[in-house]
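re: ur question from yesterday

yeah so i grabbed the chain u mentioned. its 729 aa long if i counted rite. heres the sequnce exactly as i have it in my notes:
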Amino acid sequence: MAKGPDPLRARSRTAPAQDSPGSAEPRGESGEAGRPGGHGEDGGPSRGRGSGSGESIIRQLSNWGSRLVLDDAPERVVAHLKSQILSQLGAARAGYGHPLGRRVRQAYGSPLQDDPQHAVHSLSMATVCLDFDDTAYAGHLSHSTVNVPLIYASSLGLDGRQLLTAVLAANETAARITAAATLGPFRGQTAGHTHLAGAVAGRLHAESASADVWAHALGMAFSVPTWSLSRGFFSTDAKLLVAAVPVRIGLSACDGARFGLTGPEDVLEHPQGFLHRFADIPLPEEAVAGLGTLWHTETFSYKIHPGSAYTSAAVDCAVELHHALEGVDHRDIAEVVVRGSIFTAGLDRIARQHRIGPDSSVAALNFSLPYNVATALLTGSLLPADLAHPAVDRPDRWELAARVRTEHDPAFSRHALLATAPLGQALRRAGERAEAWVRAIDTRAAETLPPAWLEPETDFRWATKNLGARVTVRLRDGRELHVERRGAVGAASGADHAALARAKFLACGGDPEAADLVARLEHLRPDDVRHLVRLALAGPDDAPTSRPSAETPVARDVRDMRKDTAMETAALEEAYTGLIDAATAAARGDEASAPPSGERDADWTLAHVALSDRLLASTARQVLAGDAAGLDNGPAMDPKAIGELTSSAGRDVLVELVRRNAAELVGLLAQTPDNQRATPVSVRLVGDKGEELFSGTVPWGEIVRLRAEDHIPGHTGRLRRNAGAPQET
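ran it thru and got these structure tokens back, copy pasting raw so excuse formatting
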């Protein structure tokens, strides 16, 4: 979820507008079965109150979150947790090391002070102050979901696995409630309610509290959600309170619930409750969809520069251009043009409403695309020190910033709205209601919306965040230099997040020993966790840290004790990763180019793969349920079905459909016990003219193996040949 001034920020129906051009009342239902490439009867999105169980959203989240254990999450999700924690520790060090953060420490104390509530209050201001936090699809989670478990870890004596699990429970609870209200007046950092859930879930899981305590604490906290006002948030230090205040409310609710105080557990969906007030289009399904299989934690994008996520790709482009401009005086630059999505263009429009200069607040500087791009062009980087004196006093930065302008590029908006984050998943959940909501805000964005039949994702392993940009530098001698990026460095599904998080932490002055401890966090004992927290957060005025005693070694052997071994999906995931990369490259290429002789065109291949993966997903559900399983590839070879799909979707939509259908299939296989590999499947295969090629029984595991080793690599090679790309050997 991106942050700050939000160009797709609709007016609330129940409160004054804030930099919001319009709103739309909900209409229609979210998707329907039978659409091109869409879910069948057993795969459609849930309706109404959560999962249809009759329980409130809070009760479902409380029952699930309070019982969550680390082994419930796949290894790839645990890897994200460790990157998230380390990156957040880097943001904390950068924050406290900045003049603004030093004032926070003076006013609110050290993050290592004895009172955990005061410590978290201070830490949540320090991590938000430079806009150096990371983003999930739904929310800037870590100010509560990491900060609260970290601070409480020492006083509660958490070991590494318990700390990781508390962060995971907090992430999933906070992200889901945030997602349910995403189509409303607040997103990103302005969505302070994220931290009501993050604080409650993070603390109560750490304390092993019951589901009843969770439900009452969440009910109390969401009865008094915070409402951010743009007047203070966008250009003053008041922004520091946006996470700290709801964290304090959440922790206070925990205190009361532990001693019997009660809150309304239906406060989220009640007609007089939270979603009615905070969402233009309430999405209660988002709060409970795929509990235990749809992991919001793996939608994280990681920042390598301080500043809004809407500016990150443009800054990355400027960093690359810096090297090409070596020897060029800034006075020789006639103009810098940043082309980007509606998010980037809208941010620049809103930020320019404020007078921004050397004496502006850090918040205003964070949101200034001209200042950030100019700084990166001149220095080759954007660092926390660039948001303080004396760096902000340099006249050359402001002279060049005055020559930076932004243009909206519909293609970038299209890519942004197709991706999982910042809004794509919510728009898919809203279905036909989404167009009216977006159109009321900005008709340009509405024109770039993908088709309404494209459904929500059911697995986030390949989640995306495509907030791209193209930066062009025009010199006075007539030369032009440009760099384009589809998404920022560190964006979801496109980066080595562990390496990025470590580099960020070390660049912010973090101790390499602390980074090493986080890397093996699941093996740490309570004394080691205490040592890690002090080592990572200690300031010049805090007591020196000491290593754990020799009697409590840092590492211990912890095995993943799962009751059932699931089917191995690594080979299939690798095959699909190659296919998605090739498909993305095909989408960027010339769609009118003719394929090599004898080859199907890229659109045919993508449509066929998307349709066949949906058929395989249906078979996977049959196998998983223990039902008689069958597979007939006829619908995926039918020229009429493929023609209807290719005519109703551009190539970018076809790529997106391939990505999400592949994720759905792999996600189902990851839930399937390995002993079901031998399940017989009745198979009928036909050619593109309808002729029968095979009819018989094949073990499910063999079908999956052929998909990984033969079918998907074959389609990948075909896409690469169509695009003229070199083949892998």
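noticed a couple things. The longest strand covers residues 333-340. also Residues 1-5, 9-51, 551-563 have pLDDT under 50 and may be disordered.
anyway ttyl
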